[in-house]
Design goal:
Blueprint lengths: L1 H10 L4 H5 L6 E5 L7 H5 L6 E5 L7 H12 L5 E7 L3 H7 L6 H13 L6 H19 L1 H8 L4 E7 L6 E3 L1
Parallel strand pairs: 1-2, 1-3, 3-4
Antiparallel strand pairs: 4-5
Helix pairs in contact: 5-6, 7-8
Bound molecules: zinc ion.
The site of zinc ion has 8 residues, from helix 5.
């Protein structure tokens, strides 16, 4: 309850009327579904500022890439940030041997593709965020062209829950 109160006190400062006109997010985020990595909270932002795609393990799935295409082409969002975070359960699951449901197997497949032999969990999480960032342009001509022409930048980052620091990868 205390956490909820703190978040609302800090982020509910935007006049709702300002949002009715439409969205003009200055960044699009591809992040994990993890409750601890809510983008507005970690970047200290409010409603209307970030276009978000969230899925456990922050992989670049077709639906997510299509959503990012909308952000780049229609909303003219100039920045895509892929956020990997410490202690990511989806990356842990991808590295582990525990049996998963068929749907979870699908979910961890791109994470497994990103793993390099000898990776520890942190290296795997960081490598996965970099892999997801590359997948966006490899699978979307629209975003690849926007990147080449300088209309959008794509930056993978690592959010460390222990220190609260976000570092570029
Ligand atoms: Zn995660």
């Amino acid at each position: 309850m205390q956490i909820k109160q703190a978040i609302f006190d800090e982020s509910c400062h935007i006049n709702p009327q300002a949002l009715v006109q439409g969205q003009r997010p200055w960044a699009a985020i591809l992040s994990c579904a993890d409750a601890r990595v809510a983008p507005e909270w970690i970047f200290g932002l409010g409603s209307g500022e970030l276009f978000q795609v969230r899925v456990a393990g922050n992989s670049a799935f077709n639906d997510g890439i299509a959503s990012l295409e909308y952000a780049v082409a229609v909303l003219e969002t100039p920045l895509i940030v892929v956020v990997g975070h410490s202690g990511c359960g989806a990356v842990k699951a991808a590295m582990g041997k525990e049996p998963l449901t068929p749907l979870l197997e699908d979910l961890v497949q791109p994470i497994r593709e990103s793993l390099r032999s000898g990776d520890d969990l942190t290296q795997a999480i960081q490598g996965n965020a970099q892999y997801a960032a590359r997948q966006i342009t490899q699978r979307s001509n629209l975003i690849a062209e926007a990147k080449d022409s300088g209309k959008v930048r794509i930056i993978p980052v690592y959010f460390d829950l222990n220190s609260g620091l976000i570092s570029k990868l």
